[in-house]
Specification:
Bound molecules: zinc ion
CATH architecture of the largest domain: 2-Layer Sandwich
Number of helices: 9
Largest sheet: 5 strands, mixed
Strand order of the largest sheet: 3-2-1-4-7
CATH topology of the largest domain: Nucleotidyltransferase, domain 5
Number of strands: 12
Radius of gyration: 20 Å
Strand content: 15-25%
Helix content: 25-40%
Shape: globular
Number of domains: 2
Structural class: alpha/beta
Length: about 300
């Protein structure tokens, strides 16, 4: 009989939850407002949700063999405790896996959301699972996942892949993390939105790449994004680079021009000669699919 996993994709506003089998097919899913789950304490809310879905599975004669919770946060190397979650109240410092396991009796893993996203992307893009892949996801900030030699690289403390917090020479703007001059202060959606508000109030952010791509402030955003991708590729020389997140999906984002911009900063001859940028096929259920892949690793 195939194994079934309960996967959760936690966001600041909504949490997606669903049962996924070991062929990575989502068998059923739902959306719950995260704030509502956190009403009695977020760990208790998640555990109650697991118990509810476990009962549904049991009614169908199924058993959940693992729970995987993807969080927009840094997670410790053992993937049990959330380290810092800027967008979800009550999650920072929580021993989430222990709490859910104790209350449900089901083995539980907590993982950084982009680490689940890269697993889903490697699967859906048909990339060899034994290869080395970097994922750079441009949303509000810069999400980053490292998949090296067939596994997600977490670092000594779980803090690997914080590409958005690489410091930029000579810049002093304070990042959301508290440090001065981080890359994501310039290469993320939050900054692009500020550029539109400050310099081009008549242009909605969704039109920025269509109407403003020759403006120096927007060129700087694209350049910071390209530097992020190129810097990591120069360090790791990966087989594949996956680009994702909301920014590259915006109207007017020129993939060829972006590839050229990245190539300018790549070391020659390698990785410059062989590196192609792949684009994430992310969808609403990618986090859940990635959760199931994580559960089988
Ligand atoms: Zn930072």
């Amino acid at each position: 009989m195939s194994k079934k996993f309960l996967c959760m994709d936690v966001g600041g506003t909504n949490t997606r939850v669903g049962i996924v089998n070991d062929e990575f097919t989502v068998l059923g899913s739902a959306i719950e407002p995260t704030k509502q789950l956190a009403a009695k304490g977020i760990g208790i809310g998640f555990a109650d949700l697991v118990l509810k879905w476990a009962a549904l599975a049991e009614a169908e004669g199924d058993e959940l063999s693992r729970v995987v919770i993807g969080v927009p946060a840094t997670v410790d190397a053992a993937r049990r405790r959330v380290l810092q979650a800027p967008n979800v109240e009550g999650l920072s410092g929580l021993a989430l896996a222990d709490q859910v396991e104790e209350m449900t009796g089901i083995p539980t893993t907590v993982e950084k959301d982009v680490n689940l996203l890269i697993l889903s992307d490697i699967h859906s893009l048909g990339i060899d699972p034994a290869s080395s892949v970097t994922g750079v996801y441009f949303g509000t900030g810069i999400g980053n996942a490292l998949y090296l030699g067939g596994q997600v690289w977490h670092g000594a403390h779980g803090s690997a892949g914080e590409l958005g917090h690489v410091p930029m020479l000579g810049r002093t703007e304070t990042c959301g993390c508290g440090n001065p001059g981080c890359l994501e202060c310039f290469g993320g959606g939050h900054h692009l939105a500020s550029v539109c508000t400050e310099y081009f109030p008549e242009v909605p952010i969704g039109e920025a790449f269509v109407r403003l791509s020759n403006e120096p402030q927007v060129i700087e955003v694209l350049e910071a994004m390209a530097i992020a991708v190129a810097a990591e590729a120069n360090i790791l020389d990966p087989d594949e680079v996956i680009i994702g997140g909301g920014l590259p999906l915006m109207k007017g984002f020129d993939r060829d021009a972006f590839a050229e911009r990245v190539r300018t900063h790549l070391r020659k001859p390698f990785p410059a000669e062989t590196l192609t940028l792949r684009y994430s096929q992310q969808g609403q259920l990618s986090g859940l699919v990635g959760g199931a892949i994580c559960a089988t690793m």
